[in-house]
Design goal:
The chain is mainly alpha-helical and 595 residues long. The chain contains 22 helices and five strands. Strands 3-5-4 form a three-stranded antiparallel beta sheet. Strands 1-2 form a two-stranded antiparallel ribbon.
């Protein structure tokens, strides 16, 4: 039998369980073969724990996620996501997001196979459930990136026929994801029953929330995108096999049911410490490490908002990458992003009398949604309106703004950042705020609107933390606003830079061509301190001439980060191309359309 080498990583798994000595003593000590592993309950415990680092981590998030290159980010340096946002992706020879994911799935399939022949007395049900959740996570990642992919549920070997099989359709893969999540929900413990030493492990509520995420994604994809991206249908491809538009309504109904269960569990709550954090909860939540990461001395134990997340720690698992520096530089907001934030009367800036305009740098931050200041200003001194000094626009990738979401601070010290690569805040993969938004969106998609009570139970809770008044149907009608726009606005703002949510949303809503095809702009020049001011603004240092675009005060000339002429995102770009090396190995594996 082929020998499979398993790498045991005790430092990472300290969060979940102490290492058992017998794992180290197994013969041969450098490897654990199929013959001797997964024969005891402890093996299944450690095996399932070993999959947690396979979830998205900080290194992954900086490379291809975080909304980098989307319409909400006003920064350009080239690279994969800049090219993707412009519709310029080429099929790569290799793609680690494809090959690594299948390696992970193979490990999970092996555990599940061994579980079928397990004869021990100690229950392994929880470890099986966790592994089903892990496999569902990996397959959903593949579906979001590539659409239909080969569906493999056994631990294939180098000569297995499955290696040369055609792709399954996205609908067939999603059916397996749903089945795995049903098993996970049935077998995982409630969050309240997970001890402090095991925080970060999957809970029943996490599985329910993740299933809601999958169902909402697929229901809206079927509704707005349909089969238009299913281009692999030939005699050797699955194409749109299993597509059934009648699933849309039951999927959405289950999203409502699942999110209600999580919301009503009494286990989670929004992290709102505005009263002691100068209304900056939406900043400090995302760099929450220890009591030294914020002026109120709050640590991770106070965070009951994260439901599914990657666990990090100063001692056992630091980020290992330039998280703060990368997020500060690469996630500078675009003009569109800055103008999305409502004024504190709940109105868009083009309708509100409280909007102060753009004439001076701090003006547009006044009387706005708390998250605007939380995300896009520094917070070393609470109580200040940041950026009192005007930002010099000199072409050095400076669009007039910067980002501070996911930036690590050492509070009350001389150095702004933690030591390089030591950031240790958890990475959110699903949190309560998103559950509220999924609930609201599913209701809208089902009923075309929400009742006032449904708004109060979901979107208005998020707005309250942001310092915004609640909305109601009367308020929306009075101000010629609509709930669909407000739900989508909230997703753009609340989930900014989290897990590529913007790309996923634009595609599943079928509007990525329109939104990603627009020009990307930065600071307003016309009618501001920058106009005709050579000391603050040197237009010749930018790659593109400033252009007129819509702002909160009408058409104004703004910095041009990328003109619409170079942004050509199309329906073919909804899915990434498969790596050509895989196509060469398997003649039955067909490429996505457009590549």
């Amino acid at each position: 039998m082929k020998k499979i080498i398993y790498i045991i990583v005790p430092c990472i798994m300290v969060f979940f369980t102490s290492c058992e000595d017998e794992f180290i003593d197994l013969t041969p000590p450098a490897s654990i073969t199929d013959d001797v592993y997964y024969t005891e309950a402890e093996h299944f415990l450690t095996g399932s724990n070993r999959f947690y680092p396979y979830l998205m981590g900080w290194k992954d998030d900086q490379g291809i996620f975080s909304d980098h290159g989307s319409d909400l980010v006003g920064y350009y340096e080239g690279g994969d996501m800049q090219e993707y946002g412009r519709g310029e992706t080429l099929a790569p020879v290799d793609d680690d997001y494809y090959t690594d994911t299948y390696e992970y799935i193979r490990d999970m399939n092996l555990l599940l196979e061994r579980a079928e022949t397990y004869e021990g007395e100690e229950s392994i049900a929880e470890y099986i459930a966790a592994t089903k959740m892990h496999r569902a996570w990996q397959y959903f990642f593949l579906v979001q990136r590539f659409g239909g992919v080969p569906l493999i549920t056994t631990s294939i070997d180098v000569d297995s026929e499955e290696l040369y099989a055609p792709r399954n359709s996205r609908y067939e893969v999603v059916a397996q994801i749903i089945a795995d999540l049903d098993d996970a929900i049935a077998g995982l413990p409630n969050e309240a029953n997970i001890g402090s030493e095991d925080k970060g492990k999957f809970s029943k509520e996490a599985a329910m929330g993740f299933k809601a995420d999958v169902l909402l994604h697929e229901a809206t994809w079927m509704k707005y995108v349909g089969t238009t991206t299913d281009g692999d249908g030939t005699s050797t491809g699955a194409g749109s096999a299993g597509y059934d538009a009648s699933n849309i309504i039951p999927y959405l109904q289950e999203v409502v049911s699942l999110t209600q269960s999580v919301m009503n569990s009494g286990t989670f709550e929004l992290w709102n410490y505005n009263d002691v954090l100068d209304n900056l909860s939406s900043n400090f939540l995302f760099n929450l490490e220890d009591s030294g990461s914020n002026p109120a001395g709050l640590d991770k134990a106070t965070n009951k908002e994260f439901i599914l997340y990657g666990k990090y720690d100063f001692i056992y698992r630091q980020a290992g990458d330039l998280v703060s520096h990368v997020y500060e530089g690469r996630l500078k907001p675009s003009r569109k992003m800055m103008d999305l934030f409502l004024c504190d009367d709940g109105l868009p800036i083009d309708q509100s009398e409280k909007f102060q305009g753009y004439a001076n740098t701090p003006d547009e931050y006044q009387n706005r949604d708390y998250r605007m200041r939380a995300y896009f200003t520094y917070h070393k001194n609470l109580g200040e309106i940041p950026q009192n000094e005007d930002v010099e626009l000199d072409g050095s990738n400076n669009n007039g703004y910067f980002n501070s979401k996911f930036m690590s601070w050492k509070w009350n010290t001389e150095d702004a950042y933690r030591a390089t690569k030591t950031e240790s805040y958890d990475i959110p993969l699903l949190r309560l705020a998103e559950v509220y938004l999924m609930y609201a969106e599913a209701l809208y998609e089902l009923n075309g609107g929400l009742t006032d009570a449904e708004m109060d139970a979901s979107i208005n809770l998020i707005k309250a933390r942001a310092g915004l008044p609640p909305i109601s149907n009367a308020f929306l009608t009075e101000h010629n606003m609509d709930i669909k726009t407000e739900i989508r606005r909230e997703r753009a703002i609340e989930l900014y830079a989290e897990s590529a949510s913007r790309y996923s949303d634009l595609r599943r809503w079928g509007i990525a061509e329109e939104e990603l095809g627009e020009g990307v702009y930065g600071a307003v020049i016309e009618g501001t301190i920058y106009e005709d001011n050579s000391e603050l603004y040197t237009p010749e240092s930018y790659n593109y001439l400033a252009e007129s675009t819509t702002t909160g005060v009408g058409e104004r000339v703004c910095l041009t980060i990328q003109p619409a002429s170079i942004r050509n995102f199309s329906r073919d770009n909804y899915l990434f191309p498969l790596p050509t090396s895989q196509l060469g190995l398997n003649d039955n594996l067909l490429q996505n359309p457009g590549y």
